[in-house]
Amino acid sequence: MAALADRFRSLTGSEPEGFWFAPGRVNLIGEHTDYNDGFVLPFALERKAVLAAGRRHDDQLVIASLELNEDVTIALKDLAPGVGGWDAYLAGVVWALREAGHAVGGATLVLSSDVPLGAGLSSSAAIECATVAALVDLYGLTIEKMDRARVAQVAENAYVGAPTGLLDQAASTLCEADAGLFLDCRTLDTEQVPLPMAAQALEILVLDTKTPHSHVDGEYGTRRRTCEEAAEILGVDALRDVTDLDAALAQLDDDTMRRRVRHVVTENARVLDALALAREGDLEALAPLLDASHASMRDDYEITVPTVDLAVETAREAGALGARMTGGGFGGCIIALVRAGDADRIGQRIAEAFSEAGYGRPEWFAATPAPGAGQLR
Questions:
Q1: For tag attachment on the chain, is the N or C end more exposed, with fewer CB atoms within 10 Å?
Q2: 282 is known as an active-site residue
Q3: At what angle do helices 306-317 and 343-357 cross, to 10 degrees?
Q4: Residue 44 buriedness (CB in 10 A; 0-12 / 13-18 / 19+)
């Protein structure tokens, strides 16, 4: 935090009022179900965005990034959706809070993050949720955790322009250590689900294929619109309400739409199955669900890419119990359920396979479920 404090002092001539953080996340299972009013089961990572922050009294927002070595100054009156680059993820939170009627004034926000960008680990949500946490404390706001996540989502949807669901922000805000967060994306009911990986001699390998992706591009939005159109044809509020998959598919003429619907409906079922297994404490039995989820994303939702598929296939060949892409797709990360101590060996084997295929070297680590956003003491 010393580097954050130094940069803050160089910008303001004073000490930060505090340090706040929010983590990236891995989605254990439940991909593209959130905006279909479905179910998800993410957990937070130890990798996080951290802010040194303090109030200003000149109606200015000063935002700096240690990694980019850049800073931006914006007048509060000039905050507007669609304006800004990397700083929009922080400025958008200020805008969203003010739009919601909260008395938030100027601030200096100095950012550092070790959540990989474009890897599907919710680097943007980590930044947004850390900003929410800082501003809530700095300005003495009373906002429940789920409502904080929704503010961060508004920032991403309306200000940045990425049509994501609530999964990322909810995970970054509400997760607890050594647990997954089961979230019903319609009711917003949550359950902290114990994930005692170490006690069962298991670990989660998270491997970044280094194939960047972006939720602001057209493919994510296209998938979402197709789901909304299918729900309208089927006469349901959202695909979460489809109870007879075969009957639903028979009502759809377009093969692409049928495959999108099949993914969402079966993925929701897999999340509920995973929840039941986690409640029973049988984490090894999650492996076939991870495999089935990846096949569905590859074949029905068509959001995987060759690097991701190779990583998943190689992980299984190298001894992973189960593996899948995690995140919105078109690049990013995979996760694999592996025996304790195997993560690095399997990561090395994937790196070898990438080299043989002419791909760049991936990065990987073993993940431990971590707590959600808060203040660093």
A1: C
A2: no
A3: 130
A4: buried
- In the set 37, 168, 208, 342, the catalytic residue is 168
The structure tokens listed for 116 are: 């990989």
Q: Any binding-site annotation on 159?
A: no
Residue 124 marked as a ligand binder: yes
Residue 162's pLDDT band (cuts 50, 70, 90): confident
Question: Which pTM value belongs to this model?
Answer: 0.89
CB-based contact 173:22 (threshold 8 Å):
yes
pLDDT of residue 216: 46
- The answer to whether 32 is annotated as binding is yes
What the chain holds in terms of domains, given with CATH numbers, is 2-192 (3.30.230.10), 195-367 (3.30.70.890)
Q: Is 34 annotated as a binding residue?
A: yes
Residue the block writes with tokens 């960008």: 117
Determine contact, residues 50/130, Cβ cutoff 8 Å: yes
Q: How confident is the model at residue 285 (pLDDT cuts 50, 70, 90)?
A: very high
Cα within 13 Å of Cα(215), Cβ side: 22
Q: What is the pLDDT of residue 164?
A: 80
Q: Please say if the pLDDT value at position 244 is more than 60.
A: yes
Q: What value does the mean pLDDT take over residues 279-295?
A: 97
176 is in an annotated binding site: no
Check residues 282 and 165 and name the one with the higher pLDDT.
282
